[in-house]
């Protein structure tokens, strides 16, 4: 295969990798906030359940979670995952659950770092709980979490390679297939360049977002 033919195949694989990344990010960011509310709930059973789930997800390998999501429906429900679309869906579900749990801890730390006295001041002024959160707490904790969130998002770019455990069309799997067929190693390093460039673009965008949020001084 020529260099350009290999590039074309890797680009096709990269497209699926990008789908996994953006789908995970779009679902995990809001879900993580919901999970963080559960972790901070005053209702003890809900708080214990949420923190228990977070502990399990953060304490087990993401690869294991991907395998469970991919094989579980077939083994437990008689609904085998066969098509590429189904495989991608289950991989995205596994990634979303995993990263939502990590994001939730970052959210929780950011929210709890805002002095409680400011919430009390909002109550004195007659603000509702939702108004206090969106107008007082949110504007402060968003600045506090941008750096750790950036680290997790950058890690997500690299973790998408784990999808190769189940999916056969992602960038890393395509690179391995080319290596096996052509008996050359350089396509793996070439695929690594794709990840490196993608990570570079994400890092630049996150850096610009952090600068735009710099007026939220804490």
- Helix count equals 8
Between the first and last Cα atoms, what is the distance in angstroms?
Answer: 55 Å
Q: How would you name the CATH homologous superfamily?
A: MetI-like
Shape: flat
Q: Unreliable stretches, pLDDT < 50, 5 or more residues?
A: none
Q: Which percent range describes the beta-strand content?
A: under 5%
What's the architecture in CATH terms? Answer: Orthogonal Bundle
Strand count, sense and closure of the main sheet? none
Question: What would you note in describing this structure?
Answer:
The chain is an all-alpha fold and 218 residues long. It has a single domain, classed as MetI-like fold (Orthogonal Bundle). It has 8 helices and no strands. It has helices at residues 3-39, 44-59, 62-77, 84-113, 116-124, 129-159, 171-182, 186-212. It is flat, with a radius of gyration of 21 Å. The mean pLDDT is 88.
Outline the fold blueprint.
Blueprint: H1 3-39, H2 44-59, H3 62-77, H4 84-113, H5 116-124, H6 129-159, H7 171-182, H8 186-212
Helix pairs in contact: 1-2, 1-4, 1-7, 2-4, 3-4, 4-6, 5-6, 6-8, 7-8
Question: Keywords for this structure?
Answer:
82% helix; MetI-like fold; 0% strand; 8 helices; 218 residues
Task: Write a brief caption for the model.
With 218 residues, the protein is mostly helical.
């Amino acid at each position: 295969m020529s260099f350009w033919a290999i590039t074309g195949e890797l680009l096709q694989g990269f497209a699926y990798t990008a789908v996994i990344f953006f789908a995970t990010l779009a679902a995990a960011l809001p879900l993580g906030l919901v999970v963080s509310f559960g972790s901070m709930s005053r209702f003890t059973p809900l708080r214990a359940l949420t923190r228990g789930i977070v502990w399990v997800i953060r304490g087990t390998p993401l690869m294991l979670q991907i395998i469970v999501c991919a094989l579980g429906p077939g083994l437990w429900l008689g609904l085998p995952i066969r098509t590429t679309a189904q495989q991608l869906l289950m991989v995205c579900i596994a990634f979303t659950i995993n990263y939502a749990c990590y994001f939730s801890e970052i959210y929780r730390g950011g929210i709890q770092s805002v002095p409680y006295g400011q919430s009390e001041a909002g109550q004195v002024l007659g603000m509702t709980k939702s108004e206090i959160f969106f107008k007082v707490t949110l504007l402060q904790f968003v600045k506090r979490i941008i750096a750790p969130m950036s680290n997790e998002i950058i890690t997500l770019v690299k973790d998408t390679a784990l999808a190769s455990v189940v999916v056969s069309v992602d960038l890393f799997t395509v690179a391995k297939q080319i290596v096996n067929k052509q008996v050359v190693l350089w396509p793996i390093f070439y695929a690594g360049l794709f990840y490196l460039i993608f990570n570079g673009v994400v890092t630049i965008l996150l850096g610009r977002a952090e600068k735009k949020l710099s007026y939220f001084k804490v």
